[in-house]
Amino acid sequence: MEKHGFAQCLHDCKGPEMKDPAIEIHDLTMAYREKPVLWDIDLSIPKGSLCSVIGPNGAGKSTLLGCILGTYKPANGWIKIFDVPRDQSQELIGFVPQRESVDWDFPIQVLDVVMMGTYRSLGWFRWPGKAQRDWAMQCLDAVGMADFKSRQIGELSGGQQQRVFIARALAQDTKIILMDEPFAGVDAATEVTIREILIDLKKAQKTVVIVHHDLQTVEDFFDHVLLLNLRLVAAGPTATTFTRENLLRTYGGKLTLLDEAAEAVRRIRSGRSTGKRG
Amino acid sequence: MMQIFLDPAMFEILLVACLATVSCSMVGVHLTLRNRAMLGDAIAHGVVPGLVLGFIFTGSRDVAPMFIGAMVSALLLSFLAEWLRDRAEVDGGAALGVVFTTLFSLGIVLIEMFTREVDLDANCVLYGLIEFTHFQRIEIVGISLPRSLVSVSVALLINIIAMMLCWKEWKVCAFDPALARSMRLPVKALERSLLMLVALTAVSCFEAVGSILVVAMIAVPATIAGILCNQFGYMMIVSCIVGLLSAFFGTYSAVYIIDTNVPGMIAVTAGGFLFLAVFLAPSRGLLPVALRMITWRLRVAKEDLLADSLELSKKGNQFHAPAFFSISGLAHLQLVIFGQLRSGRPVGRGERIAKTLLRKRSLWQRFAADRLGLPSDHLESPAHRIEHHLDESLMELLEEGDESADRPAH
User: Fold this and answer.
1) pLDDT tens across B221-243, in order?
2) Chain A residue with the nearest C-alpha to that of B182
3) A113: which chain B residues are within 8 Å (Cβ-Cβ)?
4) Which of A66, A264, B120, B154 supports an S-S bond with A71, CB 3.0-4.6 Å?
5) B5 touches chain A (CB under 8 A)
6) Cα–Cα distance measured from residue B249 to residue A173, given in angstroms and rounded to the nearest whole number
7) Which residues in chain A are closer than 8 Å to B167, comparing Cβ atoms?
8) Whether B175 and A69 lie within 8 Å, measured CB to CB
9) Which pLDDT does position A276 carry in this prediction?
10) In the predicted model, is pLDDT for residue A102 greater than 90?
11) Which domains, ranges and CATH numbers included, belong to chain A?
12) Would you list the DSSP string of A83-96?
């Protein structure tokens, strides 16, 4: 793959090659309207790893998850899931959304939320039955929320809500699970529970990708890290990648070139619209 | 009240009203949960040009061409509104508002231009022709049925079937579109088919009951159900029941009590139910909440009075009754009436309450001092507040803690 000039200088960092990764991303660029939020991302996430995505606010972490999930359509590049292009892959991906993105007033009870995880395997037009209910209960039990099954979701505390959504991801029974800041604003008990679940998931050979904020716990929780700030700063095993130098590169220096490029793109857009007006 | 069931003409009106409101209430639940209750309004008005064009092209008031025209304009409406929102960066609500008013006005203009001589006019679109239900009949397999009854029954049937089939799919789309997408559900197609269902419901109820009732019945019963329920399934049922009740009482009062426009009266009745729900809903209603607050404050005042009087009488001081017109005055009155407070001293049950309360207070003060390590001037007022909230199990916990804290000291 040959690259020239500007693209080349964005491209100086490439994840290490690995054999049959769970998720492989090649040359991914994602833009909201004309404003790019992810630049030329190349990375692989190994099968069965606990992988954290780390970076400052607005680094494009959630966008990356959205691209893997298929919520956003990338402007450029491709994503492969277990070596199959994302759009053709039948492989499903479990997802635990950011807490802010959920409508907590929705009239739905805890068990119903978890049962939603079984809808796909149930197929079109069929109603969930006892088997689905039992499986959902089992998943609720795994996160220690079985006693709350008949609560309306808005009545739960933040940590409990998070656990319910993790139970839903478990109920989906997918090989890959993405979580958007599951540790944000949860109580100590929930943190312990989520931690235990992560360990269980690792044992079960699941690939878990988590957007994470707490740099203190990265080394304890995860075996793989992606450092992200609009582009990929570094990716690899925690031991070798989660270094002071890489963190400085992620959070520290401004990416002046990228900023200017984004500004140039914006200028074109606004120039066009003022031209129309005039 | 039985007379409405005995007069066949009246009964048919009632039936049409009921079936139409139930269809609207069902789609209304979905729209309300998507915070798009006003989409019903938009569609009910936006389909008018389609209806008129269907009529102009065929020159007949057959169901099919008007229906197709309406569906096309509903689709056009949603495409235009989405296009304005995504491409021209207009706010979503504003985009919808602009598009549907334009389309509706276009419909009115078309009506005035082309159909002046025939029996399609703006009034019939707004208010419907429910009063004439009995006189416009068609034959189906040899049975003479009112025309509008057939169309609203078909709409209701399609609604029920669609809701049963796509129950969980639409539910996921409403609650968590991201999850739906990650499950590879065609979210856009599902949402659009829901839109078509709304259009179908609106169009088929249009002629029978008019657009005002359609708009009201999509928004109001579902909103009431949202206040009363916290489960999707119950919400659907309650919404239908509210729709039915509004239809019944609205029709009845419009025909037999105040002799007025039936659809208008149904919508007004539903509005009345909404106010009732806002005030009386057991969990969230303004009145029950206020009542619970007053009961609680009264209880606190009674407990405080009993405890105070007990402490005063121990010290041999005189207990003074509180000012009559106040919460504690009312509490005092109640205590005296129930014989729990006699001449400034708690008696019987009152005495037990006072003693328990004092015990709770001292337990909490010790807990705060020993376990939380608060200085002595921080103990008094929190204990006074929290003592009323301590129930049996918390008491036991505190007592246990108290004993275990005491043990090493002895």
Assistant:
1) 999 999 998 889 999 999 999 99
2) A69
3) 175
4) A66
5) no
6) 50
7) 127
8) no
9) 38
10) no
11) 1-90+209-278 (3.40.50.300), 92-174 (3.40.50.300)
12) TEETTT----EEEE
CA distance A257 to chain B (A): 29
User: How far does the CA of residue B232 sit from the closest CA of chain A (Å)?
Assistant: 5
- Beta strand pairing status for A176-180 and A93-96? parallel
Nearest chain A alpha carbon to B227? A107
Interface contact B178-A70, CB threshold 8 A: no
The partner residue sitting opposite B175, judged by closest CB among A71, A106, A172, is: A106
| B360 neighbors B390 (Cβ within 8 angstroms) | yes
Mean pLDDT for B374-402 is: 78
The token pair at B195 is 């839109």
Q: Which stretches of chain A sit within 8 Å of chain B by CB?
A: 69-71, 92-95, 97, 101-103, 106-109, 112-113, 116, 119-120, 122, 124-125, 127-128, 152, 154, 168, 172
- Domain definitions of chain B by residue range: 3-282, 288-404
Q: Is the dihedral of CA B59, B65, B67, B72 positive or negative?
A: negative
Separation of alpha carbons B367 and B354, rounded Å: 20
Residues in chain B: 410
Q: Is A125 exposed, middle or buried (0-12, 13-18, 19+ CB in 10 A)?
A: exposed
Are the CB atoms for A179 and A208 separated by under 8 Å? Answer: yes
Give the pLDDT score at B404. Answer: 65
Residue A175 to residues A90, A94, A222, A226: CA-CA distances in angstroms?
Answer: 12, 8, 17, 19
> Which strand (E) or helix (H) includes residue B404?
helix B392-409
Q: CA A174 to CA A172: how far, in whole Å?
A: 6
* Range ranked top by mean pLDDT from A183-187, A210-214, B130-134, B155-159: B155-159
- Domain B288-404: give its CATH architecture: Orthogonal Bundle (1.10)
Highest average pLDDT, of A270-274, B2-6, B339-343, comes from: B339-343
pLDDT band at A18 (very low <50, low <70, confident <90, very high): low
In a mutational test of the B interface, the residue from A65, A81, A120 whose CB has the highest number of chain B CBs within 10 Å is: A120
Name the residue facing A95 among B166, B168, B179 (closest C-beta): B179
Of the ranges A205-209, B22-26, B106-110, which one carries the lowest mean pLDDT score? B106-110
Can you tell me which residue has the tokens 């579902």? B222
* Whether B169 and A93 lie within 8 Å, measured CB to CB: no
Tally A–B CB contacts below 8 A: 71
Residue B163 — very low, low, confident or very high, per pLDDT cuts 50/70/90?
Answer: very high
Q: What is the mean pLDDT of chain A?
A: 82
Contacts with A, B 183-202, CB within 8 Å: 183-185
pLDDT for A124-144, tens place per residue? Answer: 888 888 989 999 999 999 888
CB-nearest to A93 from B174, B182, B230 is B182
E strand or H helix that includes residue B300: helix B286-315
Domain B3-282 superfamily per CATH: ABC transporter involved in vitamin B12 uptake, BtuC (1.10.3470.10)
ipTM above 0.90, yes or no: no
**Residue B403 burial (CB count, 10 A):** 9
Contacts of A10 (CB under 8 A, 6+ apart): A39, A40, A231, A258
Give the whole-angstrom CA distance, residue B380 versus residue B376.
8
**Which one of A71, A103, A107 has the shortest CB-CB distance to B235?**
A107
Pairing of strands A50-54, A224-229: parallel
Q: Do B175 and A108 touch (CB under 8 A)?
A: yes
